[in-house]
Amino acid sequence: MLRVARRKMASVSAVPSRSAVAFWGVAFSPDGKLLAVACDDKTVRMWEAASPKAFTALSGHAGIVKAVAFSPDGKLLATASDDKTAR
């Protein structure tokens, strides 16, 4: 279960760890099985949509990740950051 708090920037926490990360954008894969979250710690966190735990964190940006989007076939994930790059 993911809890989302509404604020200027929302925070998401994975239960039961209760660790919070501010995020800027989210995207579900086309099949609905994966959730990608653009985080302010310069990573993209990935979840299985049915699971409460992040299973991986993708790094590589030098700035806050602001947006994420899956390709229509779900094989690619695009990210955009304050570092003025898209990956």
Describe the structure.
This protein has about 90 residues and is mainly beta. The chain has one domain. The protein contains no helices and 8 strands. It has a 6-stranded antiparallel sheet with strand order 1-2-3-4-5-6, with no helix packed on it. A two-stranded antiparallel sheet has the order 7-8. A hairpin with a 6-residue loop joins β7 (about 65-70) and β8 (about 75-80). It is globular, with a radius of gyration of 12 Å. The chain starts with a strand and ends in a 6-residue tail after the last strand. The relative contact order is 0.20. Residues about 1-20 have low confidence and may be disordered.
Give helix and strand order, one letter per element, not per position: EEEEEEEE
Number of strands: 8
Overall 3D shape: globular
**Poorly predicted sequence stretches spanning 5 or more consecutive residues:** 1-18
Q: Strand portion, in percent?
A: over 45%
Calculate the terminal CA-CA distance, rounded to whole Å. 28 Å
The biggest sheet, with number of strands, parallel, antiparallel or mixed sense and barrel status, is: 6 strands, antiparallel
Spatially, the strands of the biggest sheet line up as 1-2-3-4-5-6
Helix content: under 10%
The number of helices is 0
Mean pLDDT: 79
User: How much is the radius of gyration in Å?
Assistant: 12 Å
Structural class: mainly beta
Number of domains: 1
